[in-house]
Design brief:
Layout (H helix, E strand, L loop, with lengths): L2 H7 L1 H15 L4 H32 L1
Helix pairs in contact: 1-2
Length: about 60
């Protein structure tokens, strides 16, 4: 999949990836590391909610 096509299909994932790359490469200090850890935790929580909602939708729809 081309990079531009990926950005169009997955804009949130692309932005999160870009944020992680920026935090790791452009500003490698403790404050940003802590921010990255918080962002990663938030991402995992949101992904869990999405998966749970999808699973619940599959149960109701199927």
């Amino acid at each position: 999949m081309a990079d531009e096509e990926h950005k169009k299909l997955h804009p949130i994932l692309d932005e999160i990836t870009r944020t992680y790359v920026d935090l790791y490469t452009n500003r490698p200090n403790e404050k940003n590391r802590e921010q990255l850890i918080k962002l990663e935790e938030m991402l995992h929580q949101n992904l869990e909610r999405i998966l749970a909602a999808k699973e619940e939708g599959d149960k109701k729809g199927g």
